[in-house]
Amino acid sequence: MSAKDNTYHIERIARKTNSYIKLVSEPDVSVTFNANGGTFENNETVKTVDIPESKEVLIKNYITKPSRVGYNFKEWNTAYDGMGDSYTIDTKNTFSQNKTLYAQWTPIKYKILPQNPDGYWSTNYPIYCKYDDEPIKYNCSEYKKEDYVFLGFSRKENAESPDAGLEVDSEGYVTFPKNLTTTDGETIKFYSVYAYANNPLVRIDGKIYRTSDKGLENPDAENSPSNPTILEVKLNNKDYGTVSDYKILPADGAVTIKGSAGTVTFDSEDGSAETDIYKSYVNGVEKYYKIKFIQNTVAENLNIEFDNFKIKTSYEFNNGEEIDNSVNFECDNNFEVIDGHYAKNYTGYIYAKAKPNQTYHFSFDDVLAEGYRIEEADNKFDITLDENGKASKIIKVYSTWESKDNIEYIKLNFKLLDNYSALINGEKFNMREQYYITDGDRYAIVYTVRDKIPEDRKAEVHFLWVYLGDQNQVHVYDKPFMDSDGNYTEWIDVNEDGSTDIHEIYDNCYQVTNYGEPVMTKKSVATSYYIKVVFNPVYTHSFCEDADGKTVLFTQEETVGEKYTVPSEIPEKEGYKFAGWYIDENTQLYAGMTVEKAHGTKAYAKWNPINYTVKLDANGGTAATSDLGDWSISNYGTSVQQGSIAYDTTDKTISQGTNLVKRDGYDLLGFSTDKNAAVP
Questions:
Q1: Residue 658 is part of which domain span?
Q2: 670 lies in a domain?
Q3: Pairing mode, if any, of strands 229-235 and 322-338?
Q4: 476-510 confidence digits (pLDDT tens)
């Protein structure tokens, strides 16, 4: 049989005669399928297929139905609004001409079940919802509980504060947002959240929050205007630069008389904001308070039970082995201001035996809470580590029912991870710096030790608790066995420049026990970690303003084994006198002192407060003659004074103020540096 131009020649061998048949293609029509708000596979929104003309066909044999978040597919229709002719996928249809069909959708249905005011659940009276319905304003006027104040709702049982957006407003309503789930028929429980009435509450931006008593600012002094009790309030997302109105709602038995309302601005690096000090009478006793607003550093819009989470990915080891693994992300519990926004930091760890210059694929689908997505398409993104094994990614999480401007910023910081710790020549961890480099198809960790080259030109590297999986694993080639704690030591040659060659630490080998004797068994395909040690006694020493090391005043080069030089400029701090540079509480650093590697890389200034004499002039009155405490009479009885009051004294109140001075016919209001002041 042969064919040419659709004409097929058929030879009939038996009779030696020829027959011919011409095959004519049946006509097709083009049908365009519009997902109408949904998507086909590969995120396509429109597909066109050819279907035999005037024949009964099942549409599902030619195209798969699209999908749409929060909706179920219903049928196809010739009109986008469903007012045309319907075409179902499970019944036969006939097409006689080209046509465009639009997907028709029905929203999923779900139920909201708020916990009753009495703490029970009325499953017979849920709130019925459909996807894309308007938010529901729920009346909470019945949520009353003796000695408690209702704050709102949370999806978490025993939550200390309501979920973001579920706080009760000033009118007594909680607004449940739309699109709380994409699962058809789901029932979503919301737990009621209360606060004890014996602590003040705070209304900020129309929402009420509980306060937590953190004690006095200076626990060694009495409550006073300069030493208030700190009340902490934990908030959900407040973006950098946000200005919020607040009002103090006194606890039972308390009356707030001064500074109970105002505004706070969230512009600190740690995401916090503080109110002014306010005065309140608690059961008749005068008290001073300050509200400190702090923010939750854990991502609010992720579906994670604890602070940390995992994302699956695949990557290649330095031996060519490909694995499916999860990257663990740990909350760093801090903020970073990025592009004028607070970003919550998480660190994700990738094994250092990974092959460099490869791309890691991540999907956020499994960690996002219902109703949230990220800016990237399909909630997916890629990461490539740099030559030092680092990368970062800003993730913007926003709700699918609110404005895209309502964003939670999360910064993912990627780092390499080794499954061991190393001590080098007996040094401690603060005596060295460490970082990764790329060397061909492998990463190597570089330890820069602040020390001279050892006399024997050997780097003694002691590896602590090397463990990878179910069995201990050590190097198989002429290496000492591990001790009972899983530790072992290697000696690596040091070159003239103070560095070692890149050294393989150990292979993926098993150490097993045979009647008490160690036996080494090597895997057929091994993976390794790599190390390089650099000895360099020269380093940069930082001289900081305070022991926290946050503010560096000076830096200069120092050399281990040589003598320290210290900055020639004397630092200054208002109200204090510089008392020298210190390495720790008891060790002062001074010029000519020998630089030891154990000293670390930072020194900080120690400060002594400047003492003052405070004088209280009676201003037309006289000094009292009794109950003066630490005060003494001066100026022939017209004033009192006290010496050696330190600048940094936290409690600057005058405890015997009403007894120190007096004036006939007048009540003492207080004191001022202005002789003619009308108020203290």
A1: 611-662
A2: no
A3: unpaired
A4: 333 444 555 556 677 899 999 999 999 887 544 44
